[in-house]
Amino acid sequence: MSDTVSKGKARTALAVATLLLAAGWFSLAASSLAPKPLGPKTHHQVIVPGEDRFTPFSLTIRVGDSVQWINNDTDDHTVVSNDFFNTTGDKNVDVVIPGTDSNGGVPGTLTLKFTKPGVFNYYCRIHSMLDEQHQPIAPGPGGGIQDPATGNFGTPMMGVITVQSGEGEQHGNPGHHGD
To answer: What pTM was computed for the model?
Structure first.
């Protein structure tokens, strides 16, 4: 009888071990199929160097990423959304980014987080204006800076951010967040 009990205990132990192995395998398989959590979002930078322009002019980012504008110029500049063309949902943006002269020698900053895919067109209202087709143009005789030698009003100070949905390779100018 003890031989029958021993065989029964061995079968039970084998069955339990098999179930535990199967449960572990299924758990491992399920965890590898589960969606991976998204990593930390990237922060990108648009720089206003010591002149009237945004660099880079064009930036491609992902939904959930942030963009920080840093004004290294001595003059104030603005980020104004061109709402006629914007499809990211970021409307009515009109923010002054102080230059170093009006900000105690420190570059002014602005950070926006983009939560929808689309296109965000923007311009500096001090160094651009919109024409009747909502296109940024350099300011004319009513404002702006004119080169006395050529009479040229320069190019409009503007930029565009393309916000893509989903994960993938980041494009553009990766930077860091520093508010």
So the answer is: 0.65
